[in-house]
Structure prediction request, 646 residues.
Amino acid sequence: MSHDQASYLELLARGAAAEAYDRPVLLARASGTAPDELAAIEHAKQLALRVRAELEGRRRREAELSALFETAHDLAGLRDLDAVLRAIVQRARSLLGTEVAYLSLNDPSAGDTYMRVTEGSVSARFQQLRLGMGEGLGGLVAQTARPYVTDSYFDDARFEHTRTIDTAVSDEGLVAILGVPLMLGSQVIGVLFAADRRERVFEREQVALLGSFAAHAAVAIDTANLLAETRSALAELERANEIIRDHSGVIERASEVHDRLTEVVLRGGGVLDVAAALSEVLDGAVEFTDDDLDATGADGRAIRHGDDWVAAVSAGGEMLGALVLRGRRDLDPVDRRTLERAAMVTSLLLLARRSAHDAEQRVRGELLDDLLDAADRDPRLLRERAARLRADLDAPHVVLAARIDGPGTDAADREAARWDTTGRDTAGRDSAAVERETADRQRLWSAASHLAATRSGLAAARDGGTVLLLPLGPEDSASDLARQTARQLGDTLRELVTVGASAPVAAPAGDPRPIAGAYAQARRCLDALHLLGRSGQGAAAQDLGFLGLLLADPGDIDGFVQRTMGEVVEYDRRRGTDLVRTLDAYFASGMSPARTKDDLHVHVNTVAQRLERISRLLGPDWQSPARALEIQLALRLHAMSAAVAH
Prediction:
């Protein structure tokens, strides 16, 4: 054996890199070695490389077998499924020499798959990835139950690429990916992956090795599931035994609750009596509240709300309030059911009380309707009806007209719904808008009726709003009463409620005839407040200055409008123009043509032409302070007259 050939044995002995085996050949060539001896050295090199490859393969197989043995050992002492799966992924990454390894599991309930374990990953988006079944390389593995490998993922058209997957893979920087299925019987439950951030060809032995790790992972998952099912079955048995032991006590407690609640109802008890009885049975403080509780379901189920237990009191989908149990952090099913039954009893009591209240309010409304519409009623009968409602119609009263004034509300929106064949009312609104308006009117009438009952007055729904007849205290004025009523109704409904008041009526029972005129005055005052931009306020005619004087005696309103701007109104009527609206916008914008054209959405030249036409109709001095004030007042009165006409 030559010295050069012996050097290969030394390289094998010290496990040199493959590149080192070229050195003896290069040295022999450099020293002028004979061709036949050079060929022998080359042959020795090839033999040495084959031996080296065989030794490397054996070492690799030994490492793989050792890793598989360690994995099997981990499974035998399985305590923490996550720890076992992490160990499998770590060993797969180490033995295959990849930069990243990860394992995904299918989620049958969600119909997708999610990352369970990652090793070597740096992207949070990738670690939290969820993707639909059948998407990406993993989807193909799951569909076919066969391994798939790609040396360049983004260039491989075999897989269904999606933006979600490609973005996550790009964030992680992966290029070469190998995936093998996790099988339980014939069912694919997930995929085990090995991946590099550069192009790479995975060998057949590496695919087989990753498949072995996937088999171990599937066994670990199956074992953990069986253990969980066993523990769950044992827990169920324990709970069943507890239920059997407590069954007698449950029956006795349920019977006691039934008897107590029945007793409360039969003796005419109210909501507070139910709460008191429930406090004793449940050994805690129970109270009824009509506040909004966001966590309260409308189905009457008792649920946790902070440190309390809450059961909704509802009827027909309407929330009436809730029963709140305090002082009990834990509540067993029997006590929860007790709280729920008490909530049902409470809803029945509240509905009964509401029915009686509604009947009384209807009677109050009928009496007020008679005062407004039938002035020839016998005063004696009116006094008797009022006395039954605890109202004194011989005292001074004020008539108030109230209306909900939301954003954009105008006279047309306040008309009663009158439908045409297209399913829209005469104001052009659809059924949903009219239903909302009807609901608002009902809410306003309900709140006004309650207010009238508390103040020994009357209330009725009328003309798209509500009319109230309230007694006037010795220290009150009509203006005070209007402001108080607007504030109280607004706070109750959490809406803008505008209220117009009449002058005081001395004794409605003795002479009901002034009531109708007072109501008309209150309505004019209400419309004026809306037109003056004072929605949500309350006022009487004397609070509105010169406009109030006209409202108190409206006989010459039309004449004043005609004398001041009648030619403009008539021009619009004949020609179909928009001069009145232009005038209103011009004054509202501070007499600025530029801002006027923005409000009207027309060209500034159009505004100029309209103003020139107005000058010819009203005279050149129409913009002087005195004339401008009269015209602005006439515009308000004209708008109010149009609203009242509707």
